[in-house]
Every structure is written in C-alpha cells, then in structure tokens.
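Tokenise the fold.
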Amino acid sequence: MSLDPAVLDRVRTQLLAEGRVPTPADVARVLRADGVLLGSDVLLDEAERLHGELAGAGPLTRLLRDPEVTDVLVTAPDQVWVDRGSGAEHVAVTFADDHAVRRLAQRLAAACGRRLDDAVPYVDARLPDGTRLHAVLAPVAVSGTCLSLRVPRRRDFGLADLVSAGSVPAEVVPWIVAVVQARLAFLVSGGTGTGKTTWLAMLLGLCDPRERLVIVEDSAELAPEHPHVVRLESRPPNIEGAGAIVMRDLVRQSLRMRPDRIVVGEVRGAEIVDLLAALNTGHEGGCATVHANAAVDVPARLESLALAAGLDRAAAHAQMAAGLDVVVHLVRDRDGRRRWASLSVAVRRRGRTEMVDALIWPTAESDVEAGPGFGRLVERLGWWAPGAVWPTW
C-alpha cells in the first residue's frame, strides 16, 4: 500500500516543524495523528521508510545496514550499486528522480555540517556514524547527482580473521607481527579499495598497549583495538574560506603530544615532509597508508608528494632511506578478493630509495616466495625472530 503524497507532505512538514531528528516512533505517532489507519506491520514499514527519508539515507538505508556491504554507489536515480567484497553489483533500488537523489545528498551533507549546492557542488565528509560521504551535483556530474558512501567496518579484523579469509598466508603472519613489535617504520600501500585502512587498524592493534598512538586523518576512519589512542582530524574551511586545519598542521602538532607512534591515516599531500622528518628524529614505529600500484612505486609516489611540498629530490630520498623500513603491499584480484601481496624493504642505491621485495605472494593460489630483500628484512628485525607467537595482550 502506498500513502497519499499529500499525507506524506503533511507528515514531513509536521516532523520538520518539531525541530529535531525524528525517530521511527515519532513518524508513527504523526501518521496516527493525521488519521492514517494502517495495520501495525504496514504502519511500521511506512514509519521506517519516512524515517529513512527524513533522518537516514532514504532508499539506501537498508543497503547500508547490510553487514556484507562496504560501498553504496548512486550514479543515476535508477542506477544504484553496492560492493559486497566482489566488485560493484547493481541492485533493484531506485529514486523517483534526480531531485530526490540531490535532496538526499544535500541532507547527508548538512548532517556533516557541510554545504552542498550550486556554489559548492561537491562534498567529501564523514557522517556521524562514520560512513564516508562523497557527492557531486549536476551539472558537474553530467548524468546527474552522484553519491558514494563507504561503510565503516562493523567489526575489527585480526590477523587470524585475515588468514581464515584467505587474505594472507599463515606463514607470513610471524613476519608481519615482528615488523610491528620491532617498531619498524612501515607503510601500507595499495590501490583504491584494497583494504589499506583495515590493515593499518589491524596492525596498530598489535602494538604494545603501553604505547601511545597519535593518529592523524583527513577523515577519521581508523579505530584500532588499542587502549591508548589519540585521534586528530583535519577540518575544511568554512563558507568564508577560513578556519581550515590541514593534515600538515596536525602532524606537526602530534610531535608535541608525546607520541610513541605517529600514524597518518593516508599520506597524500605536504604532510609527507613532516612525517618523514618525524621518522628521522627518533619517532620509531611511525606508519601510514599510501596509494600505489606496487611496492616498487612507493618511493616515486612519496617523491612526487615531497617535491610538491618544496622538498627537493635528494633530500626526499635521503629522508626515505633513513626513516622508512618496510612496505606492506595489498592488491585486489580480478575476482574482487582483497589480499596481501608483498613485504618489501627500503634500500638506498645510487642516491635513490628503492623498495626490494623480501616476501612475495604472486597469486592467491601460489606459495609465498622469498625475494632478494629477504636478508635485509632479517637484518632489520634483529633479535625479533620470525618465530614470534601471536600477541597475548
């Protein structure tokens, strides 16, 4: 049964006039007060639908509640896609028209305290529940309003979970644990959607509970299972263009906060200069994620970021060679599986920093191989033997 649009308009108006975020019970109350006679099941369905439209994600609410869904993507009113870990798949969810998609995008942006209109036609923000929001309005988005929602992890993953899921071979686990326990400086690299944030959170959970972790992020996503975490989040400028707090500011502030480990959620700008400086001035065990197609591409990626921030090439490679120890690289196979691919060691050759593979997992069906950097990895780990047992804390 569909309610009369006039009734829905009256209910919306009444709820908005109350000046607070309505609950499903509020919606049901107003429906009854309007004289709507429905069975309890139908009333509950209508209440939940209206609540989703007024305070939730509208037609996307049920998709976002699905524990298997990691991303919800809207490219047109009748083009809604989800990712359940095996790539994007089309779902039978539709909007009335592009105006409905635009209205939802603007309401979600407002919930983040952000502006989204013709003057500012795109937004990148985090919803109160941790969901990452990105939206672009037409005509910038040629086919109509585009909406991308990345759902936060509903539970924390440990190495045992990743082994069970086939995302990392069991024989590699002691080496990864040793990297964290030896307080080596590391980066988690990979392409978009390879699980970098999940891996970084999991690795931070292996840190000694006596360590103080100061996490700097552009949009807060990391929530490691660790008892002593300080989280800092950047801030965009306000409508007047003032008040911005950038990542580089926060990395500098983190140095004054007595960190045992400085963590940058994702390196993608000038903050790389301050992170490399920190790794070269006694801040052991620092870590971050970075976008790269392969571990060997990481130095070039960091170099380009450093050059854009005013650090010359020679200084950038000197800082990398002295401060960075290893790179954990992740990939996403053609079947959608996210998995560990390699553990590489940073070495300096002819004035340039290079990543040399120490452990490699070419395909999910192959065996783990020792690469040319294996000896250097053992050297870096020192007495932290790869026979390390699972952490007991």
The longest strand covers residues 338-349. Residues 1-55 form one domain. Residues 388-393 have pLDDT under 50 and may be disordered.
